[in-house]
Amino acid sequence: MVLGILRVELFFPENGSLKEKRHYLRSIKDKVRSSANVSVAEVDYQELWQRSSLAFACVAGEKNIAEDTLNCVRKLLERYYPDCLLELKVEFLKL
């Protein structure tokens, strides 16, 4: 069993409040969840209104399946939110 984690650093220069940030993050989370079977959580910068770090996770029987799922998420983020992306980092843990 393999756990795949995609950590994404985001920057929202147009946001002026935490409320705007939460609205934007909810949109991102909903779009990703509707197209890929992953879990998602905001894992850092909760108190900042222009920055966020999201972690997307999936569990699969084989690494290539987890890798394909996270690549789908990465491509979706790069397609719809290219101006917000600062960094993408992927890691896999064998369970």
Number of strands: 4
- CATH topology assignment: Alpha-Beta Plaits
Question: Are there runs of 5+ residues with pLDDT below 50, and where?
Answer: none
Shape: elongated
- The domain tally reads 1
Instruction: Give the name of the CATH architecture.
Output: 2-Layer Sandwich
Please name the fourth-level CATH homologous superfamily: TT1725-like
How many alpha or pi helices? 2
Order of helices and strands: EHEEHE
The biggest beta sheet reads: 4 strands, antiparallel
By secondary-structure content and strand pairing, the structural class works out as: alpha+beta
Question: Overview of this structure, please?
Answer:
With 95 residues, this protein is of the alpha+beta class. The protein is 38% helix and 38% strand. The chain has one domain: Alpha-Beta Plaits (2-Layer Sandwich), CATH 3.30.70. The protein has two helices and four strands, in the order βαββαβ. Strands 2-3-1-4 form a four-stranded antiparallel sheet, with helices on one face. Strand 2 and strand 3 form a beta hairpin. The longest helix is centred in the first third of the chain and has 18 residues, at 18-35. The model has no long low-confidence stretch (mean pLDDT 94).
Itemize the secondary structure elements and their pairings.
Layout: E1 2-11, H1 18-35, E2 39-44, E3 51-60, H2 63-80, E4 85-94
Antiparallel strand pairs: 1-3, 1-4, 2-3
